[in-house]
User: Which sequence fits this backbone?
């Protein structure tokens, strides 16, 4: 297995709490989810909120913000939050094209995937999680291509209307692919173990699979893999959860 390069995020000693969120899939069609996220960003007492991917349902380039009032509203939430606390963003499989220009305008720090959160005695590996799901071979082939500078440059050079149409087609294809799978791919056990050993960590946190739970790590006694919740707040679902880490090493799942 190829070696993995880890980013590092060092938390100041005075921090007391960090909130971790992923898989919001923000879109104008789900106002309840947006409102729950906005309210949490405005009201949390944490020192930082780290957004671990798929914050947006789709992202076809930073230039789309100027023509999309919903994205402009999301940007304002990020801008306001970053004025009073640290906000980090890690790309997911839906929003890996979020660029530095957009994040910089919002005061948000870009996080590499994976990143090691170093906080006192804690070393926590953070990831969106899609890179770990090796069983989804079709997606992994696409991921290798889509994360290259050449593919991204070629895609972003297309007219915005064409990019939006392509994104809609890819979403439909992804939904059809997911429905055809007998079971959804989960984090690969060997890769999980390799990441933790390489990062000298006993704690991995990721999203992507939409199956929030805590799992022991095979072959690493005492190690834990925590999966973040996806968010859906509408007439039929009330699913919105934050994983809060504390300076004293406590971990708790909180409703947003």
Assistant:
């Amino acid at each position: 297995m190829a070696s993995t390069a880890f980013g590092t995020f060092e938390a100041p000693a005075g921090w007391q709490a960090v909130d971790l969120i992923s898989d919001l899939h923000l879109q104008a069609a789900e106002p309840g989810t947006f409102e729950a996220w906005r309210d949490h960003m405005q009201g949390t007492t944490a020192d930082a909120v780290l957004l671990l991917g798929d914050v947006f349902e789709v992202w076809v380039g930073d230039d789309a913000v100027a023509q999309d009032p919903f994205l402009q509203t999301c940007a304002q939430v990020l801008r306001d939050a970053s004025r009073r606390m640290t906000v980090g963003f890690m790309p997911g499989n839906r929003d890996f094209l979020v660029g530095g220009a957009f994040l910089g305008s919002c005061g948000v720090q870009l996080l590499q995937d994976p990143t090691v959160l170093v906080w006192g005695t804690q070393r926590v590996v953070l990831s969106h999680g899609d890179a770990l799901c090796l069983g989804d071979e079709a997606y992994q082939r696409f991921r290798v291509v889509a994360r290259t500078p050449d593919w991204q440059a070629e895609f972003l050079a297309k007219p915005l209307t064409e990019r939006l149409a392509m994104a809609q087609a890819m979403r439909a294809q992804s939904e059809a692919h997911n429905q055809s799978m007998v079971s959804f791919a989960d984090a690969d056990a060997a890769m999980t173990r390799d990441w933790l050993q390489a990062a000298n960590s006993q704690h991995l946190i990721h999203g992507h699979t939409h199956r929030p739970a805590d799992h022991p790590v095979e072959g690493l006694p005492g190690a834990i893999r925590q999966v973040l919740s996806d968010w859906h707040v509408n007439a039929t679902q009330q699913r919105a959860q934050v994983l809060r880490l504390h300076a004293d090493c406590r971990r708790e799942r909180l409703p947003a």
